[in-house]
Amino acid sequence: MAVFRPFKAVRPKDEFAAKVAALPYDVMNSPEAAEMVKGNPYSFLHVDKAEIDLPAGTDLYSEQVYLKASENLKALESDGICKQDEEPKFYIYKQVMNGRAQVGLTGCVSIDDYINNIIKKHELTRADKEADRINHVDYCDANTGPIFLAYRPNSEIAAIISTYMAENKPCYDFVTDDGIGNTVWVIDSAEINAKISALFDKVDYLYIADGHHRAASAVKVGLKRREANPDYTGEEEFNYFLAVLFSCDELEIMDYNRVIKDLNGNTEEEFKNKIAEKFDIEKIGSPAYKPEALHTFGMLLGGEWYKLTAKAGTYDADDVVAALDVSILQNNVISPILGIDDPRTDKRIDFVGGIRGLSELEKRASTDMCLAFSMYPTSLEELMAIADAGKIMPPKSTWFEPKLLSGLFIHKLK
To answer: Is-contact 22 406, C-beta < 8 A?
Structure first.
């Protein structure tokens, strides 16, 4: 059963929350981060991307960067911008984007649950990305970015959250520059916090929605601390890592679309003929076609939009990975016709998150690419089914919005 416990968050004082809160480190590069923090010395990007405070050209993975991150994190407390709560608490975190709300609980989950697959994964991690975050967590002595986890709906947990929100004032309530509303409630009741933990004791599994590298890194730091402290009891903070848990019915996965550089030597007519062997093709023309059901795809070729519908026999419905739309497209078009066998590394393919809209596909297909596919979003049920089966999703299968902000909650490891 899942361990979920309250913690003493280091968090911004109310008046600084909007200035401290920042997008996660992995959604922008260093120059973009440097531009975003102009005029804001409190931005958490000074912690999560500390290279922006070092000379240009500094190696992003040098010790200097991690030492600067640690220094900047400590300064947030010593300068009175952030303060640690005196008692362990859970925190309700609500985000609103385009009128749709998602409400989660912020607390700490167990590294043992990750190791024992109570916290289920659906994505492979890269050693270089893990190493970066391991160093960041280790030098900062803290989890600075929450892991985005989901669980199956639980009416008792939902009732506690909704009641608390209705009866108590939030500590933070602000809108970011991109129009996302962010509201936080501190659950001050020890009794309610204990009840929440007890209810999660009955939850069978948690699922990583986003943040596989951060989760893996947090676990490896915890294991490293255990080695250094062989008499550990299991109660030390390094045995836990920061997460925001959402009921899966609160979440929405956006489409994750594909753009291709060339037709692998085919003419447009040859390419369409090959496509027609596995898909029914319907010419849409314009406007852009956004798929409305599973196993349908939009295709932009030669300035025209087409609707593709997968024919019977193009996938194994009993295979949870093969039945994904991203797999159907990869296995029937991108690999056999376009010759792109490894979409993780092939430079002839790129991926466009649904947040950017289909106009971005039209722009790319008329400039640096020649072909685009719009996708029907992967569902939470598909994600959880794959994780339950112990399998891995293909790359670039899911795009979650809004992103969880960093800096609102910091979990110290001791």
So the answer is: yes
Q: Tell me whether the omega of the peptide bond preceding residue 287 falls within 30 degrees of 0, making it cis.
A: yes
> Which residues, 6+ apart, have CB-to-CB distance to 249 below 8 Å?
153, 380
Q: In sequence order, what DSSP letters do the residues of 46-100 get, joined into one string?
A: HHHTGGGGS-TT--TTSHHHHHHHHHHHHHHHHTTSEEE-SS-BEEEEEEEETTE
Q: Of 366, 372, 364, 348, nearest to 291 (Cα)?
A: 372
- How high is the pLDDT of residue 344? 86
For the chain, the farthest-separated pair of C-alpha atoms sits apart, in whole angstroms, at 69
Smallest Cα–Cα separation from 314: which of 268, 274, 261, 286?
274
**Single-letter amino acid code for the residue at 43:** S
- For 259, the token pair is 């753009």
| Helix and strand numbers, DSSP H then E, in the chain | 13, 21
Paired with 186 in beta bridges are: 91
Residues 6+ apart with CB under 8 A from 146: 106, 211, 242, 243, 244, 404, 406, 409
SS3 sequence of 177-204 = CCCCEEEEEEECCHHHHHHHHHHHCCCC
Q: Residue 149's closest CA among 410, 404, 405?
A: 404
In angstroms, what CA-CA distances link 118 with 2, 113, 204, 387, 393? 6, 5, 7, 11, 18
Per-10-residue mean pLDDT, the chain, length 414 = 97 98 93 96 98 95 98 98 98 97 98 98 90 97 97 98 98 96 98 98 97 96 97 97 97 96 98 98 93 98 97 95 97 98 94 94 97 97 96 93 97 96
- Distance of alpha carbon 313 from its chain centroid, rounded? 33
Strand-pairing partners, residue 104, are: 93, 246
Angle value at C-alpha 40, between 35 and 44, nearest 5 degrees: 85
How many other β-carbons are positioned within 10 Å of the β-carbon of residue 225? 19
For position 126, what pLDDT does the model report? 85
